[in-house]
Amino acid sequence: MSQGLLALGIEGLGLNLSAANIADLELFLQEMGRWNQVHNLTAIEGEADSIQLHLIDSIAVLPVLRQFLKAPNPKIADLGSGGGLPAIPIAIVEPEWHLSLIEAVRKKTAFLQHARGRLKLKNINILSERVENAAMHQKGQFDAVISRAFTSLARFLELSLPFLKPDGLVFAMKGKRADEEMQEVCMSDWRLLVDEPLHIPNLSVERRILVLSPMRKSHPSL
């Protein structure tokens, strides 16, 4: 894996990462690439695309997360984590944060378990079940919920609500359909706090981060 290519992308994000962070991020991509050859974790192949579309895309949200998550050890749920994006790159860079990766597909949770052990990540928890089922025993436990390419925004918000503490936040990583998806959201239930583009170095694909908070303070029964 080319450290120079990875470092180039990171410099473009303005993040101050250690050499150990970079080494662990590269190791994660190596393991994902190796598993992907057999288990088809993701359709994106090739070093350059993986770095830009997977890893850099995932950590590009860190400045926004840091802006809102002021607690020293915030708890974050990654819904439909897939191959661990964005949760594992975030967990590598922020070892004091606690992330729960919720994924129903067994071959993907097997990779997540492998990656946790390979990277010695003690700050992640992996739940091998459907998001709706996980919500039943994780109600009101999280400071934030995040997702990357999981489902529509309206559905993501609906699924996120049971997980959130009363003052919890939703971080939605979206692409060019963000405006269209926002039209389907009932804004009497949600407050839009942030809607801004994410700059991914050397990548022309549109990326957006939306931050929303629920208007109501109590969670409906599941």
UniProtKB/TrEMBL annotation:
Molecular functions (GO terms): rRNA (guanine-N7-)-methyltransferase activity
Any Gene Ontology CC annotation: cytosol
Chief location category: cytoplasm
Taxonomy, superkingdom: Bacteria
Cellular compartments annotated: Cytoplasm
Listed InterPro entries: rRNA_ssu_MeTfrase_G (IPR003682), SAM-dependent_MTases_sf (IPR029063)
The keyword Transferase belongs to this UniProt entry's keyword annotation: yes
Binding site for S-adenosyl-L-methionine: G80, L85, V131, E132, R148
Gene3D superfamilies (alphabetical): Vaccinia Virus protein VP39
Keywords carried by this UniProt record: Cytoplasm, Methyltransferase, rRNA processing, S-adenosyl-L-methionine, Transferase
Catalyzed reaction equations: guanosine(527) in 16S rRNA + S-adenosyl-L-methionine = N(7)-methylguanosine(527) in 16S rRNA + S-adenosyl-L-homocysteine
SUPFAM superfamilies: S-adenosyl-L-methionine-dependent methyltransferases
UniProt keyword Acetylation, yes or no: no
EC nos: 2.1.1.170
HAMAP family linked to this entry: 16SrRNA_methyltr_G
Function (record text): Specifically methylates the N7 position of guanine in position 527 of 16S rRNA.
Similarity annotation: Belongs to the methyltransferase superfamily. RNA methyltransferase RsmG family.
Name of the protein described by the UniProt record: Ribosomal RNA small subunit methyltransferase G
Gene that specifies this protein: rsmG
